[in-house]
Write a structure and sequence with these properties.
By secondary structure, the protein is mostly helical. The chain has helices at residues 5-19, 25-42, 47-66. The model has no long low-confidence stretch (mean pLDDT 81).
Length: 70
């Protein structure tokens, strides 16, 4: 299913303060994460599970990179 246009607009709107280098970047990141979670929910995706899966993939890549010869 395609991403809901409202969810995409909310995520883009939440990203604007980061691009503008707002002083309270923590709040801007929180707004962005909330918008992304809402977008995932609108698409029927479990955002927490998606993050776990992405972290697992990231850890695997790091582990492989650590075992590469110099």
């Amino acid at each position: 299913a395609p991403v809901a246009p409202d969810a995409v607009a909310a995520a883009a709107s939440a990203l604007e303060p980061l691009v503008a280098a707002r002083a309270d970047r923590g709040t801007a990141y929180g707004d962005l994460l909330l918008a992304l979670a809402a977008s995932a929910r609108a698409d029927g995706v479990d955002a927490e599970q998606a993050l776990r899966d992405a972290l697992r993939t990231y850890r695997t890549r790091i582990r492989h990179a650590e075992h590469l010869p110099d």
